[in-house]
Specification:
Order of helices and strands: HHHHH
Shape: globular
Distance between the termini: 37 Å
Helix content: over 70%
Amino acid sequence: MSDFTIKDMLAMQQTLQEKYKDKWETICPEAGKHKLLWLLGEVGEVIDIIKKNGDQKAVEDLDLRQHLVEEMADVFMYYNDVLLCYGISEQELKEAYIAKFEKNMTRW
C-alpha cells in the first residue's frame, strides 16, 4: 500500500468486524454512539501520553512515540467504526472534508 486511504482503513476495519462478529457489538447506527465513546477513550489515552511526558518527549523518544502512534491508530479504528455504523462512505467524507476546508479557508 503506497497510499493509505480512508477506503483502505474502512475495508480493514470491516474485515476486523467480520472476524469478531460473534464477540464485538454489531456495526449498525445504534452502535454508533458506543463507538464514539470508545473513540473518546482512545483520544484520552493519546492526551495522557502527552500530558504525562510532554510534547517534546512525545516527538523525540522513540518508544514513547511508538506508543503515541499506536494509540492514534486506535483512534482511527474507532473513527472508522463510526463511519461504518452510519454508512458514511469515503466519497461522502471526501466531499464534506473538502467543503469544510474551503469554508475554513475563507473564515478569517
